[in-house]
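WARN retry 2 of 3 for item q-0093 after timeout on previous attempt; input resubmitted unchanged.
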Amino acid sequence: MPDYLQETPWDKRNFGIDTYEVTAMHNIALEATDKINGHFTIKVPPLEDPRQLLRHGFYYMDTLIEPVCQREDFHLLEQDGISVSQDYDVKAVLAIARQSFIHGRFHRDFHIPSKLADLRYMNWVKDLHDDKQVYALYVHNQLAGFFGFSGNQILLLGMKAEFRQKGLSKVLTSQCCKLLFDQGYEVLRTSVSAANVASLNLFYSLGFKLKNTVDVYHKLNGPDPVGAF
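OK item q-0093 returned
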């Protein structure tokens, strides 16, 4: 497999088809995507002329924004009854993951069945759990959500429906960010869909500044995926 086509086995296991990330936008790379079946992702600067992508069957899927927070800019929020722990029922956390990611690019991809997009995020959370990279979020000892991370990267944030839109996710996320800063990191990073305004506002309120953006395009050759099983 050439360097400009990187296999993504974490997606293949959910969709049951070959999946790739395209790492270059030159003609050879794009022409290669015409010759094999599978699902392709390419991420490009937002000012890149998309006509070449469109000619090769790619379709716009999302714009990702990178919020970044320096330690000195961080706003710590506290509230009675709020706690964070790595002691949790993983099945309960996965149940939250199943309903938390409607803004994800695979949920928005009209070729991907919603149940497979849900499965992708649930498996991602399971991987993070296995690597001890999930914090459970509690409100008065009730599981309210989870926070997935890797190093200084904030990867996933999910809240139960009944705990949303109450200002709790802001406090809980702040507490998790503090734990990461306490590990010695000077800067935290995350990536948020431009469609997820609530999440962007959350991170902005905690001292994150919006930095880079990237446009994401998908392409599918062959039938729509039906899953690995």
